[in-house]
Design brief:
23 strands, 29% strand, globular, binds S-adenosyl-L-homocysteine, alpha/beta, eight-stranded mixed sheet, six-stranded mixed sheet
């Protein structure tokens, strides 16, 4: 074995002793050695480790733990035995308190370094009561192992090789049972499995959505095609067996009921899981669930927050930041199925929602209807097209309050510019990426908005993902 390296030029296969003093964006431990930053997978802030250098770049490198010399007090034994292999949970070896601290620091550092703002009201982090079993959505890739057996599980970190996970502690047990039943069905019926490399085979993914309040479940199987067999009679027989097998999952419990089974056709060579065609097989093509006392219909193609327990706390924060009196025009930009819009409508004069996925807007309209909410209107389209257009056409649609909840890439520049021109009193920015949030906050601060409040709401225990709600006020308004 090599000597422990202490020279300046670290190289591959050197061995170093380092103290871990931070956690990086993928959950890896960060330590330093002679001015070099080293990323060490599985290491925790406070660990002292002996590590083998795997790869060096000019000023940083990657290393692997050989031995933990001093164990950090924040280190815990993960509940899940495959958490270090699977790409899903990057922080499960770190205590939940420390995970929260990591997330808050990530938000503070991004807002400071990218957004140029350190001074605002940072609220106490809104933690989960139980950081496991919280996801109402499971998305499993389907594949074959080297012996040709069907496996359903998760991609290993940064790869597309599937780990056959029996359990995933982020979902309720019912999702695992459905997954096992599906595996039995696919094996028994000898259904062909999709192979990414050759773009052949049929079954690609399974999506399971669970309504935590209603117990409704939707199972949607993603196919590289639209049926199990070309022969109509055979196809019908297989579909009957498919439904019967999945329904067996209900037998040992009384909380969840499979209300919807559908196929999704995705023939593209793509990493995107779902295609845009849904083929109903059993029941409806949606499930119903509640947030507070508002009822929502959710289709497989629509975005829906994955953690229903924290979602309510997140939306309550949005309500409190919006601080409505009943006279306001509110825009809910990137509105999905209208969850925030309907939540806000009770307290606003009029809410306008905008969303790019047509199916989600259909759901949003239906959700307004079933709840008897009339002061909302939804538009399909890219926010950066719809908002400028509506603003040009009709100045009475000018926003008093704007809520934005963009995907990770943040808000489009044209959209931000239009929002600034509308001069809303407050902008409530919900973000799942502190980096792009900070970039957009910087722009808004330059255009006359002040960052007042920041609340980190943990929606994704055990993972590096961060959700944050912020409130910006227009200066002098
Ligand atoms: N506010 C909703 C959804 C937020 S997720 C909720 O809390 O449930 C972000 C949403 O933005 C997704 O529904 C996505 O389809 C939508 N989206 C992505 N790009 C968009 C764009 N350019 N214009 C409008 N909507 C967009």
């Amino acid at each position: 074995m090599k000597e422990i390296a202490d020279n300046l030029m670290l190289k591959k296969n050197d061995i170093v002793e380092i103290l871990i003093d931070d956690i990086g964006s993928d959950g890896e431990g960060i330590g330093r050695h002679n001015g070099m930053t080293l990323f060490v997978k599985g290491a925790v802030t406070g660990d002292k480790v002996r590590a083998l250098i795997l790869k060096m770049k000019k000023s940083y490198g990657y290393a692997k733990i050989l031995e933990i010399l001093i164990e950090s007090p924040h280190r815990v034994k993960p509940l899940c035995p495959i958490s270090m292999k699977c790409g899903g949970c990057q922080l499960s070896h770190i205590s939940y308190e420390q995970q929260l601290e990591y997330k808050v620091n990530k938000v503070k550092n991004n807002l400071g370094r990218i957004g140029g703002v350190w001074d605002y009201n940072l609220e106490p982090v809104i933690a989960m009561e139980e950081p496991y079993y919280y996801r109402n959505k499971a998305q499993f890739p389907v594949g074959c192992d080297k012996d040709g057996n069907v496996i359903i599980g998760f991609y290993a970190a940064h790869t597309h090789s599937i780990i056959d996970a029996k359990k995933c502690y982020l979902q309720p047990e019912f999702a695992w049972i459905v997954k096992d039943k599906l595996r039995e069905f696919l094996s028994d019926e000898n259904i062909s499995i999709y192979d990414e490399a050759t773009h052949t085979g049929l079954v690609r993914h399974v999506l399971i959505r669970l309504g935590f309040i209603t117990g409704d479940v939707c199972v949607c199987l993603v196919l590289n095609g639209n049926r199990f067999s070309k022969n109509k009679r055979d196809n019908e027989n297989i579909l009957i067996k498919f439904v019967d097998k999945l329904k067996e999952a209900e037998l040992d419990q009384n909380k969840f009921k499979i209300k919807s089974i559908c196929l999704n056709e995705n023939k593209e060579k793509t990493n995107v899981i779902l295609g845009d065609k849904i083929i109903p097989i059993y029941g409806e093509t949606y499930i119903t669930d509640y947030i507070g006392n508002i009822k929502y219909k959710i289709s497989p193609l629509s975005f829906y927050q994955v953690n229903p327990y924290q979602m309510v706390k997140l939306y309550d924060k949005v309500i409190s930041y919006a601080n409505l009196t009943g006279n306001e025009i509110v825009w809910d930009v990137y509105c999905g199925i209208g969850t925030i819009s309907l939540y806000l409508a009770k307290k606003a004069k009029q809410v306008y929602g905008v969303e790019i996925v047509p199916q989600a807007v259909e759901d949003a309209k239906e959700n307004a209807r079933i709840n008897g909410i009339e002061n909302v209107e939804f538009f399909v389209g890219a926010a950066e097209d719809v908002l400028p257009e509506k603003y040009e056409q009709d100045k009475s649609m000018q926003a008093d309050i704007v809520v934005v909840d963009p995907p990770r890439k943040g808000c489009d520049a044209v959209l931000l510019n239009t929002i600034v021109n509308m001069e809303p009193k407050r902008i409530v920015y919900v973000s799942c990426d502190p980096g792009t949030l900070a970039r957009d906050v910087k722009y808004l601060r330059e255009k006359g908005y002040e960052l007042k409040d920041v609340a980190v709401v943990d929606q994704f225990g055990m993972t590096v993902h961060v959700e944050v709600v912020t409130c910006l006020h227009r200066v002098n308004s």
